[in-house]
Q: What sequence folds into this?
């Protein structure tokens, strides 16, 4: 079973920030938080990952709470092409497979 | 980032035939690759872990004689769906690890008539 909980769906206006929450209250100290997204009929695309510090890259920012029990993925300026299912996954270490939950279906509206 | 390719991207076959799907890591070597299956409006489900030079490890409920996996080199893993039936119609996705990140292929849509 997935170790994360996400809202099933969210809407966001184009150009606004999209904030996608994820609960991972049972996360272990050695587990990383990963975010992937899947656009319809494509393979999952890596977005970002982190352990305990906030992370930022060209796609998004990842904010992890101090107790590491939850995190938020931020797409700073959502576009229509960001419409996808976003998966929050925790994984202990390199080489282990990912366990996908149902994710959050983000719809970016014009 | 690293690239994983799959071939074919889609395939239609008759019931009872076998179908082979290839998964390649294009610019890195992968000792471990994973095969997932995704039914419409559902999430990805891990089918098996493919290990280079050894037997694959299958998840509970996945028939190893039906879904044959071969990982003969560090850049290629193949999944063969033997004696395919309509219920095997699905989106098959492979992935491979490079350091801390896991890269996914674009998927193969299998339709069995």
A:
């Amino acid at each position: 079973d997935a170790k994360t909980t996400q809202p099933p769906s969210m809407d966001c206006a184009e150009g606004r920030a999209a904030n996608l929450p994820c609960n991972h209250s049972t996360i272990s100290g050695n587990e990383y938080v990963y975010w992937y997204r899947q656009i319809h009929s494509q393979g999952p695309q890596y977005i970002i990952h982190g352990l305990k510090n906030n992370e930022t890259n060209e796609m998004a920012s990842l904010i992890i709470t101090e107790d590491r029990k939850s995190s938020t993925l931020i797409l700073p300026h959502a576009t229509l092409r960001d419409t996808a299912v976003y998966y929050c996954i925790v994984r202990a270490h390199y080489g282990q497979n990912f366990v996908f939950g149902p994710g959050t279906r983000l719809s970016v509206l014009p | 980032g690293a690239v994983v390719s799959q071939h074919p991207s889609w395939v239609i076959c008759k019931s009872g035939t076998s179908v082979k799907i290839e998964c390649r890591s294009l610019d890195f070597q992968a000792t471990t690759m994973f095969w997932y299956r995704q039914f419409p409006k559902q999430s990805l489900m891990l089918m098996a872990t493919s290990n280079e030079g050894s037997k694959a490890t299958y998840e509970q409920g996945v028939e190893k004689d039906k879904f044959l996996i071969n990982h003969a080199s560090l850049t290629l893993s193949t999944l063969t769906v033997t004696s395919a039936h309509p219920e095997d119609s699905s989106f098959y996705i492979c992935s491979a690890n490079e350091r801390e990140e896991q890269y996914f292929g674009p998927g193969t849509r299998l339709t069995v008539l």
User: Anything to note?
Assistant: The interface with chain B takes residues 32, 34, 36, 41-46, 49, 87, 94-95, 97-103 of chain A (CB under 8 Å). The CA atoms of residues 48 and 57 of chain A lie 7 Å apart. Strands of chain A lie at 9-13, 18-23, 32-38, 45-50, 55-56, 61-64, 70-75, 84-91, 104-109.
